[in-house]
Amino acid sequence: MSDTWSLDALYSGYQDPQLHEDIAKLRESAAAINALPTTLSHQDEVSAVTKILQAEECFTLLAGKLSSYLALRQSCDTSDSEAINYLSQVQQVCSDCAKAFTQLDAYIQEVSDLDSLCAQSELLKEYRYLLKQTKADGRYRLSDEVEEVIAKLNLSAGDAWGNLQEYLTSTLNVSYADQTITLSEVRNLAYSADASVRKAAYEAELAAYDEIKQSVAFALNHIKSQVNTISDLRGFASPLDMTLYYSRMDRQTLDAMMAAIQEYLPIFHQYLKRKGDLLGHPNGLPWYDLFAPLPLSASVEKKYTLQETKDYLINHFTPFAQDLADLIQTAFDDAWIDFYPRKGKVGGAFCYNLPFIKQSRILTNFDGELGDIVTLAHELGHAYHGLMIEDHRPLNTDYSMPVAETASTFNENIIMNAAIAEEHDPKQKLILIEKQLQDVTQIICDIYSRFLFEREVFERRRNSFLFADSLCDIMVNAQKTAYGDALDPSFLHPYMWVNKSHYYSSSLSFYNFPYAFGGLFARGLVQKYEQDKEGFVPQYRSLLKATTIAHVEESAALVGIDLRERQFWVDSLETCKQRIEEFLTLSKIL
């Protein structure tokens, strides 16, 4: 079993003739895209729209394969100059087509009766949702020239600032215990059983940010300013409204979820304060102990090898769905996963679906803890989601941001609920429950703080530049609102805005509430599964498959869930409350 991924299914390396042939083909495809608008008329709209879709399919497949390979190479070595060079070439070709894509969309927006048109062609029937959304998007599209300028300038603006943040955080040297380690390595020490290690790592991490904080602040300011400008130009009330629109999600759904979260925050505070008591912190839990193992776990905490991790995941997911277990087997055996942290590798974890080759790739910074197994389960959920949509047409494989975290968080719940249920030792059960509460508290309290932070940054960026100190103040205030008196105010994390890549995209804002959405939606789905295990799985597969060709609320309706109703979110949060009450009871007995 390899501990690094193989990208040979894409290309064998930068010298692979297929790589250079595909770059040439991409340029040819781009030329065809650019020439197409002038050949279209409305005399035969079926033929014209078919040509548009076929040309865009060809371009998307080539651009997707090339950009995926290069981005994956760069994620493992952010200083890889060849990856950066080739990726910039691909991005430039894509930006050169921006005007033509806008013109092609404009043609579709001029079609008066899309329903009648789609009924005349099997290809168009498959793309009915995409075509209807393209027509609806017309009200927010700008002129051909402006769309082209935005796409071209983004390469040296939003994308460039995002690359800067990624490079600075992935190459940052952290001085810890008379040695130099990476940011990912020092952040992993937050899970150490040694309290002195956790605190020293936290202090080393905060100290290290001083070297890059102003540079990253410039990146964040300019990205958010760009998004504000584009949001205004398109006619949205705010970047949040723009995000929700392109996420194919109703504001009513977000408001219902947020209202329920605000109501249940005190329940999570009870868990955090009790954990603080157990760790000897009467003034609230310090940030550096958020992920600390409980004192009773020091002698029983287990480290897992890769083989043990693989077996653990397969054994726990086989009862749910054999196709998911088979996918896990393939991911481990066929080198889909890059496991360990190293200098130059980006932090955190992600899954990159590659539907054009019916595979995925997963990056983690594995340390052998149970939490790392849960992270792998999460990312493998994304891969399973990819499996469900890989037979869609090439332009129907992008799911919207909120549902992006559904299958992943569902996996987390399945594996942790099973592990807790089968554990008979009270101490070990408490450890597992606390591990699960760590994760769910992240997607409720921490994600809520990130949402508050990003919303305020967008608002304040309209009138002022936010230097690092101001950003730290906004972050601390957001954490105080989300965590209340459950955390020690002397030990918060003012630099959480530096290391979270989710803030640094000009095309994807507010990548925070989808984690809360995914977590609570998944809990609701788990409840459905527990009520009807045999009947649920086919419905679940249908839901995942629909996420790329339906609105968020329409996908949920396939399993009988109304996301606009606050009660659904309350019911999901009640399952969190039950776990917290179980934790509070067990922790007082032991």
- Helix content class: 55-70%
- How many helices does DSSP assign? 25
* Shape type: globular
**Largest sheet at a glance?**
3 strands, mixed
The average pLDDT score comes to 94
H-E order: HHHHHHHHHEEHHHHHHHEEEHHHHHHHHH
Please report the total strand number as a whole number: 5
Q: Can you tell me the residue ranges where pLDDT is under 50 for at least 5 consecutive residues?
A: none
Strand order of the largest sheet: 3-5-4
Structural class determined from secondary elements = mainly alpha
Q: Which percent band covers the strand fraction? A: under 5%
Q: In whole angstroms, how far apart are the ends?
A: 40 Å
Rounded radius of gyration (Å): 24 Å
Brief synopsis:
The protein is mainly α and about 600 residues long. It has 25 helices and 5 strands. Strands 3-5-4 form a 3-stranded mixed sheet, sandwiched between helices. Strands 1-2 form a two-stranded antiparallel ribbon.
Task: Give structural notes.
This protein is mostly helical and 590 residues long. It is built from 25 helices and 5 strands. The protein has helices spanning 17-35, 45-76, 81-96, 98-110, 114-118, 122-126, 128-137, 144-155, 158-171, 183-188, 195-209, 213-234, 239-246, 251-278, 306-317, 322-333, 370-389, 406-421, 426-461, 468-483, 496-499, 513-531, 533-546, 552-557, 566-589, and strands spanning 174-176, 179-181, 337-338, 350-354, 359-363. The strands form 2 sheets. Strands 3-5-4 form a 3-stranded mixed beta sheet, with helices on both faces. Helix 1 runs parallel beside helix 3, helix 2 runs antiparallel to helix 3 (81-96) and helix 15 runs antiparallel to helix 16. The protein is globular. The mean pLDDT is 94.
